[in-house]
Design brief:
about 500 residues, Ribosomal Protein S5, domain 2, Rossmann fold, 3 domains, five-stranded parallel beta sheet, 20 strands, about 35% helix
């Protein structure tokens, strides 16, 4: 005699959680457990975890053939969160749970060998999907505070045995409480940076318009120190942005005890990071550093030391704001709307002064900077030379203005962009750019001359105009004037090759 039971769970495709029906059939035949439905290694190993967990709680699987189908069968299934729906559906099939106990419930979680429930990545987007389908959500107790943010009915259990008691009318499980919402984490202050006034101004412009920025200077000039203070200039995450960022971090398994924070992400991977680590991928197509920095800052120190393949993989996400990871049988898309901050030395020797002076001549700088492709540099709006910090600068008193004062100006500039309704300046499309950032006559003439002299690409031309629009917003000016265009051009560094050719433009 055959007995069947069903449970519901989800499969992830990027941040999207798709409904999966776990169908369990107990039928006469050779004793064994078979899992079908295009599951990965972690899914196929669920049969051993579930078998051991049943033995630990004194539950025996009756003789016969146990077939577990994950439908739709042509959708790839990855992860350990299939353990709990498989275990509960099997319990219902063998009569350990009421046959209709799992109706209207999404099950999610890993099962330990002792019958305990362990957390699995993705509880927040899974709970959001359950709430969207009008279903309750069962998860491990350690995921409860995270899942509670989705709303709806959430059941968080410490073990399989506690779920059996819950469904059989014994001890009812209490709904979990949401994790903490942290308003903000104190970021390093700009007051710590002595000198480098132009670099601070560039940092403020980058924050105001979400412009990518690159600092080029010798070791010890303060490039990393400046970049680390960029998140403090940005406004807190909005509710919509908070949800997106939290779902990404949940899928990556980075949410601790369901705590959410309105502080924007700051990711700083080492230059040895692979392409998959940077943009996402791997066997399970996990989000990479660029997606984990979504709505925040991705800082790449020692930029030319990253592999050419990894840097070139950044080009498309920087333009589109998302990462498409292609596989033979499916595609996964993750959001990646970031503010890129990067730093590099002028040459491999460092290009500093004194003991750090480069002794190989201009060819050293040309070869080192040639590691960065033109298309990548085209996507970096602000490129600034950062001079060495002098002893006189270090002896100065702390600056009067710090992060708090600069953040106020950034907030005003972003409010002006929001009032126009076209989005942040760095993301303006061509129509919006022509509508809100057309410079006055002298500004247009200067930009045209600079474009011809510096041989700016169309992308570099438009990005310079976007930076000029941001500078005007910081000045509270409704129009983009010549002075704004001039400052935007001064933030567009001429590279070693151009300098060798004697190219330049006067922007004063």
């Amino acid at each position: 005699m055959q007995t069947c039971a069903n449970a519901t769970t989800v499969a992830f495709s990027g941040l999207e959680a798709r409904r999966i029906d776990v169908q369990v059939q107990v039928a006469p035949g050779t004793h064994g457990i078979v899992i079908v439905g295009l599951g990965d290694k972690a899914v196929s190993e669920a049969r051993e975890r579930v078998r051991a967990a049943f033995a630990s709680i004194g539950l025996a699987i009756p003789p016969g053939r146990l077939v577990i189908n994950l439908a739709p069968a042509d959708l790839p299934k990855e992860g350990t969160h299939y353990d709990l729906p498989i275990a509960l559906a099997t319990m219902a099939a063998i009569g350990a749970l009421p046959h209709d106990a799992l109706d209207g419930i999404v099950c999610f979680g890993e099962v330990g060998l002792d019958g305990s429930l362990a957390p699995a990545p993705g509880a927040l987007p899974a709970a959001m999907a359950a709430h969207g389908m009008g279903l309750a959500f069962i998860c491990p107790e350690t995921c409860g505070s995270e899942a509670a943010w989705a709303g709806g009915e959430v059941i968080a259990a410490p073990s399989l045995l506690s779920l059996v008691n819950h469904f059989r009318g014994g001890t009812a499980l209490k709904p979990p409480e949401r994790g903490d919402l942290i308003a903000g984490v104190r970021a390093p202050d700009l007051r710590d940076v002595r000198g480098q006034e132009q670099a601070k101004r560039a940092l403020e412009i980058a924050a105001a318009g979400a412009h990518n920025i690159l600092f080029v200077g010798p070791p010890g000039a303060g490039k990393s120190m400046l970049a680390q203070r960029l998140p403090g200039l940005l406004p807190p995450l909005s509710s919509e942005e908070l949800l997106e960022v939290s779902m990404l971090h949940s899928v990556a398994g980075l949410l601790e005890r369901g705590r959410l924070t309105r502080t924007r992400p700051f990711r700083a991977p080492h230059h040895s990071a692979s392409m998959a680590a940077l943009v996402g991928g791997g066997l399970r197509a996990k989000p990479g550093e660029i997606s984990l920095a979504h709505h925040g800052v991705l800082f790449l120190d020692e930029l030319p030391e990253f592999s050419q393949q990894a840097l070139d993989a950044l080009r498309q996400p920087l333009e589109s704001g998302q990462v498409l990871i292609a596989r033979a049988n499916h595609h996964v898309t993750y959001p990646a709307r970031i503010l890129l901050a990067a730093a590099m030395n002028p040459c491999r020797c460092g290009g500093g002064s004194g003991a750090g002076l480069c002794r190989r001549g201009p060819r050293c700088a040309i070869d080192y900077q040639a590691r960065l492709s033109g298309p990548l540099l085209d996507r970096i709006d602000i490129q600034l030379d950062v001079p060495p910090v002098l002893a006189a600068d270090l002896s100065l008193p702390p600056p009067v203005e710090g992060t708090a004062e600069a953040a106020v100006r950034v907030g005003r500039a972003r409010d002006a962009q929001a009032d126009r309704g076209a989005g942040l300046n760095a993301t303006l499309d061509l129509d919006a750019l022509e509508r809100v950032a057309a410079p006055d006559g002298p500004g247009a003439a200067l930009l045209a001359k600079a474009a011809e002299t510096l041989v700016l690409s169309a992308r570099a031309y438009h990005r310079t105009l976007k930076v000029a629009r941001t500078i005007a917003d910081l000045d509270g000016s409704p129009a983009v004037r010549r002075v704004h265009v001039a400052e935007a051009l001064s933030l567009k560094r001429q590279w070693a090759g151009a300098e060798q050719a004697g190219q330049g433009v006067k922007v004063s």
